Each structure stands twice: as C-alpha cells, then as structure tokens.
Amino acid sequence: MKINGIHHIAIICSDYERSKKFYVEVLGFPIIEETFRAHRNSYKLDLRVGENSQIELFSFPHPPQRPSTPEACGLRHLAFAVDDIEQTVIDLQSQGIEVENIRIDEITGKKFTFFKDPDNLPLEIYES
Question: Which InterPro entries does this one have (predicted)?
C-alpha cells in the first residue's frame, strides 16, 4: 500500500456564511465548487489548499460542539505551511484575527503559531 498524500480535510461549521467568508476571504482559499444539498439542508464547499489538497466545508443544522480545545481525542488541529510566518501573522491580524505569539518548534527549530477559525477550531501556521 502507498498513500500519496492528504486529499482533503472535512470541517463542519456552525455558521456557513461566516465560515465561508473566513476560509475564502481571510485565508484566501479558492472555491472549487459549492453545493447545496436540499435533502440535508446542508452546504458543501470545496476549497483548494495549495496544489494538491482541499478543505471540504460542511454546514449541518445544529452540529454538536467540539468537546475541548486542543486536547480532545481525535483531530487536534490543522497546520498550514507558509513561507513567511511574520508576514502571515500581520496579514491575519489586519483581518481582525487573534494570533498567538510565534514560537519555535524545539525539535525542528521552525517557527509556528496558532489562531482559530470562527468555530474555535485550532489552526496552525508553520514556516517551511
């Protein structure tokens, strides 16, 4: 068996329009396709992340809350690679996004930090 990479990551949001604006306008992910599924009263928004990955942003009526952050069992956070972490932090803050202080990964020596999406999903930026 050979796995070639991550195709997509699925995120369920509580407020579709707010999350769509965040991922498209703030983070700048291009829309691949947007679908409304009437039988589920749900949107599915496919977003391009880099060259080979996608985020599937779903809306569902009344989704349960995330158990805790960031140490709930299951997915801990999403990490996005960036070339210039300082500039990325400035860009996020200029959009009104709170960003933690930049830290250094004690194992790799690389810079990283965290911020949150509209549903408090922890997101990381990691300098390549």
Answer: Fosfomycin_Res_Enzymes, Glyas_Bleomycin-R_OHBP_Dase, Glyas_Fos-R_dOase_dom, VOC_core, YwkD-like_dom
